Amino acid sequence: MAEASDKVCLDASGMICGRLASYAAKEALRGKEVIIVNAEKAVVSGTKSRALARLLKKLQTRTLASQEKAPKHPRRPDTYLRRIIRAMLPRKKPKGRDAYRRVKVYIGIPPELSGVKFLSLKEASASKLKCPFVTLKDLMKEVGG
User: Fold this and answer.
1) Inter-residue contact 137 to 30 (CB < 8 Å)
2) Is the model's pLDDT at 80 over the cut of 80?
3) pLDDT at residue 58, rounded to an integer
4) In Å, how far are 5, 12, 14, 119, 142 from 56, measured between CA atoms?
5) In this predicted structure, what is the pLDDT of residue 1?
6) What is the average pLDDT value for the chain, to the nearest integer?
7) Which residues are CB-neighbours of 98 under 8 A, at least 6 positions away?
8) pLDDT confidence band for 4 (50 / 70 / 90)
9) Bridge pairing between strands 133-135 and 43-45
10) What is the structure's pLDDT at 145?
């Protein structure tokens, strides 16, 4: 078990996905265990229709060959956020694989983390956005998650 200083506990409520993911990826590469809770409350900038159109365009990527080689499209908020973090890591190198294993993302707050104090990043706050935004929960509900 890692020490308290080796853990970074983040609350994704009202945070922009990309900025949260880049911070989490950097901390994981530094060797810290990253725990993110309330993934369904993270936000994506843009109107709901525009964000949904971008997501549906990605979902069209498929293969006509073996389905085992087909891309896996996350449809739950926690797996979607974890996938965003994976894209920011050098996942084909050992340090990137190890960093990705140190990232844990949860929907809500699990009982074993109920007494932990969570960080909220000011630079990732959705209050800085001057445009409309949509939560991951609403976005994933549209694609079957």
Assistant:
1) no
2) yes
3) 85
4) 40, 23, 23, 32, 10
5) 47
6) 90
7) none
8) low
9) antiparallel
10) 65
State the Cα–Cα distance between residues 69 and 134, nearest whole angstrom. Answer: 31
- DSSP structural state of residue 7: E
What's the count of helices (H) and strands (E) in the chain, helices before strands? 5, 5
Q: Per DSSP, which regions of the chain are E strands?
A: 7-11, 33-37, 43-45, 103-105, 133-135
Give DSSP secondary structure letters for 58-78.
HHT---SS-TTSSPP---SHH
Give φ, ψ of 47 to 5 degrees. -70, 160
pLDDT score of 9: 94
Residue 59 — pLDDT band, cuts 50, 70, 90?
Answer: confident
pLDDT of 5 strictly over 80:
no
Cβ burial of 78 (10 Å; 0-12, 13-18, 19+) is buried
**Domains (range + CATH), the chain:** 4-142 (3.90.1180.10)
Q: Residues with Cβ < 8 Å from 119, sequence gap 6 or more?
A: 8, 9, 10, 11
Asked if residue 35 lies in contact with residue 10, where contact means CB atoms within 8 angstroms, the answer is: yes
CA distance 67 to 128: 41
Amino acid 122: pLDDT: 84
